Protein 1
Amino acid sequence: MEIIIDNLNAESDVIEARNAALKNKNGIRSLDLQFREEVRMDVMEALQPPPNLLELSFVGYVGIEFPRWITMSLNNLKFVIMDNCSSLPPLGNLEFLEEIYISSMKNMKYLGREFLGITGDGSAIAFPKLKILHFETCEEWTDLLLPQSEGAAPPPPKQDATGEVGY
């Protein structure tokens, strides 16, 4: 199922999003949300998909905050695409997440601890099942600030001629 979000900033849009009742549509396994402008957070919260969602795509999201349901109710999520968004949600505590594709993050300079989704003493393991973490066309990226077991900072990512980032 693909949903294109456009011009949803009125109170009636919140009601419409709630009436869509995506969270009760258990047949949805993949959800592609495409944005053309900033969307009110109450509309975003009302677009909560069902908890058994396996794949989620955010394209063009310009909000600084993401809806709570991304990390609080999508416990089976395995695949995420974040394309041309202005920020990233804390995905590290999604225990079944296997693949993350991040692309066209034009202003992203680094990934910080907030991306890991770890709070408190940091003893939780971020991304316990992650197999693929793919970055593409992140032109301003200079450093990856994820904690290292030896305490050393990781090397900056290398970008090949196609714009793909790897180590």
Protein 2
Amino acid sequence: MATGKGSGSKLNRLQFKQKLVTSSAKPITTQELLKRLKNLFGEISKTDQEEIETDSLKTVTRELIHNTLLSHKDKGVKAYVACCISDLLRLYAPDAPYTDKELRVTYAEATSSLRKKKTAFWLI
């Protein structure tokens, strides 16, 4: 059954289908990862909570908290990941798609980047 916050009308599914995390044998270049994250952010930031089938968000919800993204060396990747997670929390509200531990780790990574004052949030 589709879940969402809508009032019975047909809910939209996430159109973004690209992988954000791959095996170490075939890694995604930083430039390609930034492109993918920008595309994902562009889609979910324009989506209203009442319009989305939250089941369609499950894959990106899990991938965004993968250690390779949260601890990525590129500041732009970290910035987009933080923005995407923020929008996912908005779309899922009031029910967070993450456990308390996952939220703590994600928040710690995001605030650590901000404290360094070199995070490129202005790129978005």
Protein 3
Amino acid sequence: MSRHPTIKWAQRSDKVFITVELPDAKNVKQKLEPEGKFSFSATAGADNVPYEVVLDLFDKIDVDESKSSITSRNICYLVKKAEDNWWSRLIKQEGKSPTFLKADWDKWIDEDEQDSEPAGADMDMGDIDFSQLNMGGGLGDFDADEPEEDESDTEEEIEEGKHEHSESLAATPASTEVEIKA
């Protein structure tokens, strides 16, 4: 009996990214059909364990414009959608997705973010002079020619501190226990 590999997915309005996570896959067989059928099989591991999955994708796809790439860690598919629209899920099956099917958060973009620029690209800083904000890191009070004063304790000061600390502990009376009777 074959196992299901872990499959991650993400989408854009015109394409779907499908990544089959199967390190060192051998005998990889893949098939895409225009009606949206995605088939994958391979063996992996020292025992050549068989893996297989067949998915009925949510909608039709363009097989001729779709691509795949096999690496030593995974098999990546860029599946072109037949129509530019967002799918509500990857597969036709409603309800809970199979456990081996996961969102690829590294590639995920929400529908309303697809056409926008990366975060921060549209921020207008106006005519702010950042050198006047005194936020540190500026060159104003840095002088490379003068050596920095070392304010750390010397070995003698550290030893004195240990000696003073041990004397103060010796002068402290031992704690007495109080007996409480009920």
Protein 4
Amino acid sequence: MRTSPATRGAYRATVAVLGAAVVALGVVLLPLPGPGWLIIFAGLALLATEFAWAQRLLGFARERVAAWTRWLGRQSWPVRGAVAAGCALVVVLALGAVVAVTGVPAFLPEPVAALVADVVPGSER
């Protein structure tokens, strides 16, 4: 399909749309607990199969993640703990925002739902 001139454009367009959708999904999932960055890298890898700019961006992102990992590995335990606490705070704030917008999830047990409703401003059961 990639070698036929008639279908090459359609193939590239399909890769572009799917890759962009995967990257967009990863961006939406970034503040939530889960594999947001992994999904973004998967979308970039998909785009990189057809686009040189995506190959360069994926290479740059990999280098930055590796540099961050090396930097964090050289830091003391208090700095690592502060980074972990900061990440946990971002996750808690993101979940609080989701609950404030959508309400307390129905699957939570009643005592937990009551606690969440009391803690998160604007949330309802």
